[in-house]
Amino acid sequence: MSNTIMLSKLIKSIPNITTIMSLCISLASIQMAMSNNFELSIILMSVASIIDTLDGKIARYLKVDNQLGAILDSLSDLISFGVVPTIIIYLKIFKNHYLGCSFCILFMICITHCHILGLGQSVVKP
Q: What pTM was computed for the model?
């Protein structure tokens, strides 16, 4: 395989690599929240959201449109904007409250449901 073809494939995978980076940072944010380091967790969540915004712009700039990217982006959105904030809110505010736990579970179900519907739309295109 020639170097130009390999370079072209590498360039086309930059948006997916960026999305995976955002996903990894979100998982690190969850780890920090579980370690009671909420400040760093919120900073990491913010960084992940900025990177998540950039991956779409990079994909449009490079004119890359693939199904894997849509699935990864939806999964990253679910983790970054659904799971991470819910875990932070639960651990910081509602950890010892029964009603708070119920609220977090209900919020998580709603967010997950919405993202699954969005994922379905990105996978099944008419």
A: 0.80
